[in-house]
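Batch 3, record 17
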Amino acid sequence: MARKLESNPALVPFGRHVAALRKQMNPPLSQEDLSGLCELDRTYISGIENGKRNVSLTNIFRLARALGVEPKDLLDYPSAGEP
Amino acid sequence: MARKLESNPALVPFGRHVAALRKQMNPPLSQEDLSGLCELDRTYISGIENGKRNVSLTNIFRLARALGVEPKDLLDYPSAGEP
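Prediction for the assembled complex:
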């Protein structure tokens, strides 16, 4: 049985920011759409948005390209990096 | 024997940026200093700076705190995210 992932408080705001960027697209993207664009599994996208996945730098680059933003914009949100 | 790490072209510019930020500190930090500040092994820091480590988001946060910058500043360099 797959290990149940716990959300990491330091990652939750990042996840919310990714979800907000996804929904602000025109037209808004579903997690499935984003998953296809950045070739990451939809459940992995869901895990990122719920603060349960400690995403790697290359996957940050993939997300940024798919969302049409600069990588630094993905980390541009209040409380970024606070423990 | 430890697997020899290859550098990832997408990670090399990030590594150079981290090394530049480290050396711009006042006083400049050694890799050993930075390693102590963010509680990451010195060889891991060296691997990051040589584009051989696909650093995770929580470690990006650690590096940013240790270098006294915002996480988004760590991704603010030319060609960030280009394949």
